[in-house]
Specification:
It is built from 14 helices and nine strands. It has helices spanning 13-16, 20-23, 33-37, 52-66, 74-100, 107-118, 123-132, 137-157, 166-175, 196-207, 212-219, 241-249, 281-311, 321-324, and strands spanning 41-45, 48-51, 181-182, 185-193, 230-235, 259-261, 264-274, 277-278, 314-316. A hairpin with a 2-residue loop joins β6 (259-261) and β7. α4 packs across α5 (74-100), α5 crosses α8 (137-157) and α9 (166-175) packs across α13 (281-311).
Length: 325
């Protein structure tokens, strides 16, 4: 879901509204002429119409995002359709509530967000992606406007009202003594290549004595290639469990086996390891505060969304996979 905490790499819910993938989602402001003339309803949410074409665009964007990671077949598609409908319903509730509070997003804000979200894209790649998804830059900006409006509402009505007091932090540290110890960290680098043959070429170059930084700069497909593929200091909690287990088992200055991920084949390299060490109360407080704030924000968001749903008039219409596919 767009508002989910399920992914290990995910930010709090409001931040997901600004992900590049959110650009790909269609919205009520962008329909082709047939949709406007004869919309097929998926739901009415407090009188606001959600159409099947909207659901279809979100569904196919989510499918592209998962790229097979979410499973294949009719059962997986049915589950994805349910999640898509729930996502769109939540977003519509948020934007409707924002307008009731007289919140607005201005064109200058949309333009800034657009530049931030597309500046790393190759223009041709962006054009091809939009064509594949049958979207125009105008449609994306309208969707982005809705996302920013929902984000602005969440910030004003929920997140800014979450308080973390000194006493809360002290109690939290008392109940979580592990936070008084800084976890083991590694300085992690990576190189991203297209296939196994390219991965073998990277390994051969390193065996010949070339530095990881130079090989990364010359061969990596990742955006951080120019910095030598440096991912900085990371601890286990920052990585998905399977990847964390593999990375922290690596010896210093040892190359991992190729790991296939969504954006290519990754080769990881640990250049430094920092052992676990005790922390003072002052050192432990920032991390405890950050964790506690995330927990409070998550609970507040869930409670607020539940209240919006409970007060809403939602009239769902049956949407079948045949309509979406």
């Amino acid at each position: 879901m767009l508002l989910s905490f399920r992914r290990p790499w995910a930010a709090p819910r409001c931040a997901l509204f600004l992900s590049l993938l959110a650009l790909w989602a269609g919205n009520a402001c962008h329909r082709s002429a047939p949709d406007v003339a004869a919309p097929v309803l998926a739901a009415r949410i407090n009188g606001s119409v959600l159409t099947v074409p909207e659901v279809s665009r979100h569904f196919h964007r989510r499918r592209l995002e998962q790229d097979g990671a979410g499973g294949v077949g009719r059962e997986a598609d049915a589950l994805l359709l349910q999640q898509t409908l729930a996502d769109l319903t939540e977003r519509r509730l948020l934007t409707l509530a924002a307008r009731q509070q007289h919140l607005a997003v201005f064109s200058a804000e949309v333009d800034v967000a657009w530049r931030q979200l597309t500046h790393k894209w190759d223009p041709q790649a962006l054009t091809e992606t939009l064509a594949k998804l049958r979207l125009s830059p105008l449609a994306i900006k309208e969707d982005l406007r809705e996302s920013l409006l929902a984000q602005k509402y969440l910030r004003a009505m929920v997140l800014d009202r979450v308080a973390v007091l000194d006493r809360d932090i002290e109690v939290y540290l008392a109940n979580h003594p592990a936070l008084m110890t800084h976890p083991e960290q590694v300085r992690l680098r990576h190189i991203v290549v297209a296939d196994a043959l390219a991965a073998k070429g990277v390994a051969d170059s390193l065996r010949r004595g070339e530095t990881f930084k130079d090989v990364a700069a010359a061969r990596s497909l990742a955006a951080d290639a120019s910095s030598g593929g440096d991912l900085g200091l990371v601890h286990k909690e920052a990585l998905p469990p399977t990847l964390a287990k593999m990375v922290f088992a690596l010896k210093v200055r040892t190359l991992s086996a190729p790991v296939q991920m969504g954006d290519g084949m990754h080769l990881f390299y640990v250049s430094e390891r920092m052992a676990e060490r005790p922390l003072t109360l002052a050192q432990a407080r920032p991390r405890a505060e950050a964790i506690l704030r995330r927990e409070k924000e998550s609970a507040a968001l869930a409670e607020h969304l539940h209240a919006l749903r409970k007060a809403a008039t939602i009239e769902p219409h049956e949407v079948t996979l045949e309509q979406i596919l």
